[in-house]
Amino acid sequence: MKLNCKQKLLCPNNITRFSIHIDKNIQYPNISYIRSPVFAIILDTIRNSSYYTNDSTSACIHIAPVDTIDRDRRSKNGDYLYFIEQRLKFFPEWSDPNKIHLIFNHYTGTWPSYHRTLDFNLPSHYILASTSLTYSNYNCLSHLTFPLFHSNYSFSSSSSSLPSRSILLSFKGKSYEDVQHHRTFFRHLNNNHDIIIKYTDHTNTSDDKNEYIQLLQQSHFCLVPSGRRLYSYRLLETLQYGCIPVITTNDNELIILPFSEIIDWSKSVIIYSNASLSLLPYYLKMISKTQRNDMQKQCLTIWLEYFSSIQRIVLTALHILNDRFISSFSSLSIQY
């Protein structure tokens, strides 16, 4: 089901064309505040897009080149940027109450609570492209649903054909037993025949990765539970291999899937309550082969059109924003 946001935003200062500007650090122009490869590619894609303007005064929205992708202080990948408030002050547009700012974020909070609030003050007007949105905290004027993916995620091309699949349902990943995660219940679904559940509570090897991909290719349905946070990398991985995502969720946390502004996910994924996991195999077996094939084809189509590269993901986000603003350039087709 698509999000339906009937409200529209206006570009400030009577700007009639949706455009985006990457702000400049005038005081220290040679210092970079980019930590993650993902954020670097996001900025490069914006800079090379038809929406980019080098003129700050004619921009509809702004983005400060200060890396906000990873706001987990315990992050082990080195992408967490310290003293972010002080660094944002080097960009005058950030404190301008008349500017609208675009902010990208994958991770908020840290162990053990993983709060979903950012650890820095937001500007007066902003649009947050976030991976941790639910229907209870989503605002169509200040939020943009965004996918979660590894910085080393493989965007290699996937076959558009549907291979022969013998496994009804599969899962391979961590159990998170230390936090009594609902993933621990998955073991009760395993029958070592057409339902395969495997836990990897250790450092993943290349053999683990290869087996995981084989399971995606051989399964009709793949479990996509949350990780320690609300979202999971698995959504894009299952789409890539044409395995229908079964997104398990708590009844009180209805997550919003990425780009729900333009994608009707009801035709390609199954949202299933953790409270009824024991009945999941019976539910999946009731889905006809025709419906299953249609859903698998839709998974591949969605992945190819919206998620098959970081550049495609970023341009899709810009296209959604373009339609959100009242301008003479609304509903432009995306150019890749």
UniProtKB/TrEMBL annotation:
- Name of the featured protein: Exostosin GT47 domain-containing protein
User: Superkingdom of the source?
Assistant: Eukaryota
Q: InterPro entries, per this entry? A: Exostosin, Exostosin_GT47
Q: Which residues form the signal peptide?
A: none
Q: Which GO terms describe its biological process?
A: heparan sulfate proteoglycan biosynthetic process
Q: Which residues form the Exostosin GT47 domain?
A: 38-280
Which molecular function GO terms apply here? glycosyltransferase activity
Homology family: Belongs to the glycosyltransferase 47 family.
